[in-house]
Specification:
With 173 residues, the chain is of the alpha/beta class. It contains 5 helices and 8 strands. The protein folds into 2 domains: 60 residues, no CATH class; 99 residues, Formyl transferase, N-terminal domain (Rossmann fold, 3-Layer(aba) Sandwich), CATH 3.40.50.170. The strands form 3 sheets. A 4-stranded mixed beta sheet has the order 3-4-5-6. Strands 1-2 form a two-stranded parallel sheet. It has a two-stranded antiparallel sheet with strand order 7-8.
């Protein structure tokens, strides 16, 4: 199932073209994060995404999940972020990298914890910051790497090859 908080995302069209169920859950102005997450949890449960065997993959999901939601899917929520965490967490990571004068940026797949972009790191891939780079140019190069890295991390997860030890992810059989 693909759930989006925005109706205009490409992932919805791709999912539908492959016969994958989709749902759009636009946040309501008056609702709290917990109320939105309860609706999200209901949709996931209806699709059979349970806390024991399910996995939640975030991509471009620009909302903070409530601690209760994260706890329900503990160590079963993955996210992709356009920087080499722990550097440049949160919004506008590529702009942060350029503003800071970073020579290297990249992307990180990590487990989600209640704190923003602070979960155990699964995989990372670096991307050179070129002289004269714009946010758009750097973002495009990072996005290409995200599209390669995220499926690899998901495969490792599904194959049971990821083990969390403290803040570290150990990859192996």
């Amino acid at each position: 199932m693909v759930i989006s908080n925005r109706p205009d995302v490409r992932a919805l069209r791709v999912a539908e073209s492959h016969g994958v169920r989709t749902e759009i859950l636009v946040p309501r102005k008056e609702e709290t994060r917990e109320t939105y997450d309860a609706r999200l949890l209901t949709a996931l449960n209806a699709a059979g995404v349970d806390a024991k065997d399910g996995v939640v993959l975030l991509a471009g999901f620009m909302r903070l999940l409530s601690p209760g939601f994260v706890a329900f899917y503990r160590n079963r929520i993955l996210n992709i972020h356009p920087s080499l965490l722990p550097a440049f967490p949160g919004l506008e990571a590529q702009k942060q990298a350029l503003d800071h004068g970073a020579k290297v940026s990249g992307c990180t797949v990590h487990f989600v914890v209640p704190e923003v972009d602070a979960g155990p790191i699964i995989l990372q891939r670096s991307v050179e910051v070129k002289e004269g780079d714009t946010v758009e140019a750097l973002s495009a190069r990072i996005l290409r790497q995200e599209h390669l890295l995220y499926p690899r991390a998901v495969k490792l997860f599904v194959e049971g090859k990821l083990r969390i030890t403290g803040k570290r992810v150990v990859i192996g059989d």
